[in-house]
Amino acid sequence: MASTKPGERKLQILQTLAAMLEHPKGEKVTTAALAARVEVSEAALYRHFASKAQMFEGLIEFIEASIFGLINQICESQDQGLMQAQSISGMLLNFAEKNPGMTRVLIGDALVNEDERLQLRMNQLAERLEMAFRQSLRLAVSQGYLTEPEVQARANLLCSFVMGRWLRFAKSGFKLLPTELAPMQIALLLR
Fold this sequence. Notes:
The chain is mainly alpha-helical.
């Protein structure tokens, strides 16, 4: 058996954890089940992560880096505030659709019986998303498309819409796609 390079096993563990989360009615995600899927001992898991919570933190860090990296790209390439908000909304829905296991982390479903600091971190992620929407909508105000009093309400509405679509996707067993009718709905929210 070929040895793995440093960091490869850690990534494999996180990828396997995300894959296990794609089956909400399947096996419970325990360290024993995760170790069996990765084909290592539980002790080997703990050589890479001090706790199961730290494994979830690794997933959350990946989610944050991916989402906010994409938001930065959108904001750098799109100079229209309303188009930024629309693109960010669409990207967030696409991200969930392509990463169903991570969607369960985004909505907190996978974190229910885990360390409460993980849910707090997801709450902070939601606040940061709303802040990104506010920033784009403030740009739209400066471009004459919105008024300042609309910014907070629309940012909150967009964030709630995205999170609601994530929740619907996860609770439907990943059958009701978050992107279904989304472009028209997002356009309605930004009118």
